[in-house]
Amino acid sequence: MANYPNENLYTRDHEWAREENGLVRVGITAYAVEQLGDVTLVDLPAAGTDVKAHDRFGDVESVKTVSELFAPISGEIVEVNDALESSPELINEAPYDTGWLIVVRPSDPSELKQLMAPAAYEEHVGSLDG
Predict the structure, then answer these.
(1) CATH assignment of 9-123, given 3.20.20.105, 2.40.50.100, 3.40.309.10, 1.50.10.100?
(2) Please, where are the H alpha helices in the chain?
């Protein structure tokens, strides 16, 4: 079973969110990476784009499939991980570190309370594998 960092919160769609000085860094979980296989392309919106919680904001392509990305929180994208354009494999190598996707300035930080703690997410993932 993958390790799910305690400082992150998680969605049922396998994104993680980490609050950092009022902003929220977003990526996909190690579970999602395991399911995808080798990531070959990431399609992300530009900084300045508004996202709404639970709405699609991009796609991740892998050797196995194309998977939609869903925003864990509403707000404005203030930063995009441009390194993924030339090195999408960063998602496979370090999904919680250099493989992050976007940073959002939340319009309603209380939406974070709707996300799962690591233990709840691990239980959710366990129910999928069973």
Answers:
(1) 2.40.50.100
(2) 30-36, 83-86, 90-93, 118-129
Query: What value, to the nearest 5°, has the Cα angle with vertex 80 and ends 20 and 89?
Result: 105
Is the predicted pLDDT of residue 1 greater than 50, yes or no? no
Give the torsion sign (CA, 112, 118, 124, 128). Answer: positive
Do residues 10 and 27 lie in contact, with contact meaning Cβ atoms separated by under 8 Å? no
SS3 119: helix
Nearest to 6 by CA among 95, 113, 112, 122: 122
CA distances from 108 to 4, 13, 51, 80, 119 (A): 24, 20, 12, 20, 24
For 82-125, how does the pLDDT look when each residue is reduced to its tens digit (9 = 90+)?
A: 999 999 999 999 999 999 999 999 999 999 999 999 999 999 99
In this prediction the pTM is: 0.95
